[in-house]
Amino acid sequence: MEKLKSKREGPAVNYPGMNILNRLLLFCLLPGCLAACEDASLENRSLVNILLIDAPGDFDEVWIEVLGVEVLPSGVRGSAENASWIDIPYQAASNTVRISDLVNDQRLLIGRAEIQSGTISGIRLRLGEEMYLVRDEIRIDLTPSSILEELLDLEVSIDVESGLSYDVYIDFDLAQSIQQSPGESFQLIPEIRAFVTDQTAAIRGTVVPRNLRPHIFAINNTDTLATLTESTGGFYLKGLPPTDYGIFIDAPSGYLDTAFRVSTKPDTVIALPNITLQPQNP
Predict the structure, then answer these.
(1) DSSP β-ladder status, 118-135 and 96-98
(2) Distance between CA atoms of residues 131 and 240, nearest Å
(3) pLDDT, average across residues 64-79
(4) What's the rounded Cα separation, in Å, for the pair 145 and 143?
(5) d(CA 227, CA 218)
(6) CA 212 – CA 234 distance, rounded (Å)
(7) CB 63, CB 85: distance < 8 Å
């Protein structure tokens, strides 16, 4: 996390007969004091960067129109009652994003905003009407869930301190979000979560041979998170609640599955040695 600005103290000023408000206004108008007042305005502000990542499914490509995100920070003096949603639009030449590419180290910056410090209690991902997948070079339109907006509205509890910058990740699990209906139709039922890295753990590694693209599962007592390797064999599981995980690699046909255990801690990245999948009939 990086500092937004350092705090600077201005000189003390005292004028008899003036009330506190007038003194403050005069103080801010004095030469050399504008910077101090600007710094004072940052005392209860934080910067958030909203990033989109993906846990992909068994599709060649998945394209979804991303309009932006809304964030619900603390209100004035930390109260949730007077909090207001802040809209952060995604501004790009094209809002239709191939989110199936957002694996390993790849991520999409949706936008950033300065917000009231305290606790972020809500995040809403806003999607447009364009959504489809490509399988065997054939485009198949996705049918959105009837409760799409409800599924994109997350209750979270992310603490942000004043004067600091935070990366907030939205993880879009395509493998869980796209469900096949009878026939060749597919429905988008979003399965998403949000997290910051300084409160979670991560596991990264490389699977050899690099072109196999197996599924990688991280399994604990209460949850299972998954991803695929990308073209270089690399994978990166982010936003893991710090605990012990069973790592299971679901190998493709002709290779043996692999399993082992990993222990994680908050705000750490576990870098695994290369994982070599063994042939079934060496």
Answers:
(1) unpaired
(2) 28
(3) 84
(4) 7
(5) 9
(6) 11
(7) no
SS3 176: helix
Which range (1-15, 73-87, 158-172) has the least confidence? 1-15
User: CATH top-level class for 44-198?
Assistant: mainly beta
Location of structure tokens 């753990």: 201
Question: Would the CATH topology of 44-198 be identical to that of 200-282?
Answer: yes
Q: Where are the domains of the chain?
A: 44-198, 200-282
| Poorest-pLDDT segment among 15-24, 75-84, 235-244 | 15-24
Task: Say what the pLDDT of residue 226 is.
Answer: 86
DSSP string, 146-165: TTHHHHTEEEEEEEE-TTBE
85 within 8 A of 70, measured Cβ to Cβ: yes
Query: What is the radius of gyration, based on Cα positions, of the chain?
Result: 24
Whole-structure pTM value: 0.76
The amino acid present at 164, given as its one-letter code, is L
pLDDT at 136: 87
8 A C-beta contact, residue 279 and residue 254: yes
- Burial per residue of 222-234, b for 16 or more beta-carbon CB atoms within 10 angstroms, e otherwise: eeebbbbbbeebe
- CATH number for 200-282 (one of 3.60.15.10, 2.40.420.20, 2.60.40.1120, 1.10.10.10): it is 2.60.40.1120
How far is the C-alpha of 273 from the C-alpha of 194, rounded, in Å? 28
Rounded Cα distance between 24 and 97, Å, is: 49
Question: Is residue 253 packed enough to be buried (19+ CB in 10 Å), middle (13-18) or exposed (0-12)?
Answer: exposed
Dihedral pair phi/psi, residue 128, rounded to 5°: -95, -165
pLDDT in tens, 125-148: 999 999 999 988 999 999 999 999
